[in-house]
Amino acid sequence: MPRFYVPQPLATGQQLELPGDVAHHINVVRMEPGDTLTLFNGDGGEYTAVLTDVQKKKAWAELKLFASRDVELPFAVTLAQALPEGSKMDWIIEKAVELGVAAIQPLAARRCVVRLSAERAEKKLEHWSGIVVSASEQCGRNRLAAVAPPQEFKEWIGQQDLHKRVILTPRASESLADWARHQPAQALTIMVGPEGGFSDEEEAEALKHGALPLSIGPRVLRTETAALAAVSILSAAWGGI
Hints:
Layout (H helix, E strand, L loop, with lengths): L2 E3 L9 E3 L2 H9 L7 E5 L5 E9 L4 E9 L9 E6 L5 H12 L3 E6 L9 H22 L6 E2 L3 E2 H5 L6 E5 L7 H6 L6 E5 L7 H9 L3 E3 L8 H16 L3
Parallel strand pairs: 1-3, 6-7, 6-11, 7-8, 7-9, 10-11, 10-12
Antiparallel strand pairs: 2-5, 3-4, 4-5
């Protein structure tokens, strides 16, 4: 059943005009009045709806049934990802959402090749938010992962964080898998460096602020692989797969 995000309050029995992008998709896939679809607004749960009218650029639906379906991880993971080259961040966000990450914090680290001006950062944030929506529609999540505005590493690391922070580093003496096996499920922030990793100074600053250094294993992973491997390891250890 097709799933669509509708950013507005929803209620059983409600008849609503669907957003323009949803109406466009409905026309592209040639859905017709009477067809069934699933709608969600990011607050949790989803609605079974029936199309009541489809026009060239507009569509309407009636909400029939609410289901309090939730496929979130039993622990909250924030991904603090240093900005990688090219379009890798798009891919990282998409896959992180599919794996259940609750929030994403883009970081401008010392070895980042990408540098965003304020204007570009704003446009990127809007673009990444769209990726979160698309990935949530596809994977069945009814809550949207939050994407924070990009921050400089030095500014972000000094902020108070209620979650335990884990910095992934090949120099760690303990692996994430070994650590997780002996820990209860808990909220975590996973820090992943750019190509080339975090600098020695950044790693030292992270440790100074209480970050726990852990490795992914004996192999050095690319930045676009590390975060996804980390979330998968935690899901295997703590549940969620």
